[in-house]
């Protein structure tokens, strides 16, 4: 009986990390913010978002979408962000992710190119992981209902989907994780997180 060489792929490593992350959340709903105290986690997702954006840009001759993708407008000002509660921020990000998931799924049905389809599938998985994760963070009773109407725009260029996802992870999600960590990680956990640029 031949032994297998232990060579897990990067995708398997990401899946195992996310599974552990989600299981930890499920087992500790009373204090989900403990999971954001390690700054390396969100930085990892930012790097992956940048990598996906770069790789889709290297795909040859991606077609324009016949049915435009509806993408959220994810830009924001820091002053506006500071004035919102964590629950409002969470719901806003969930709305953005819901639109992104719909855009990625719709684009997948219109793209036959293997390179583009593969990157869209990966983006969908990553965005869906965040979508599921944020549904476990709640400061109000009741379930999140997908009835929100975020500001949006239509795009026919596939790379715009990846740009929007990267901006969301690097912007709202990064600040959201930082906000959660600020209120919980300093208590006996030796947190040494630096604030995101512009957060002073």
Helix percentage: 55-70%
CA-atom Rg in angstroms: 18 Å
The rounded distance between the terminal residues' Cα atoms is: 60 Å
pLDDT averaged residue by residue:
77
Layout of helices and strands:
Layout: H1 10-27, H2 39-57, E1 69-72, H3 78-82, H4 86-108, H5 114-134, E2 152-155, H6 158-184
Helix pairs in contact: 2-5, 2-6, 4-5, 4-6
Structure commentary:
With 200 residues, the chain is mostly helical. It has 6 helices and 2 strands; from the N terminus they run H-H-E-H-H-H-E-H. The chain has helices spanning 10-27, 39-57, 78-82, 86-108, 114-134, 158-184; strands spanning 69-72, 152-155. Strands 1-2 form a two-stranded antiparallel sheet. Helix 2 (39-57) runs antiparallel to helix 6 (158-184), helix 4 runs antiparallel to helix 5 and helix 4 (86-108) runs antiparallel to helix 6. The protein starts with 9 loop residues before the first helix and ends in a 16-residue tail after the last helix.
Give the gist of this structure.
With about 200 residues, the chain is mainly α.
Label this structure with key terms.
single chain; 200 residues; mainly alpha; two-stranded antiparallel ribbon; 56% helix; 4% strand; disordered N terminus; 2 strands
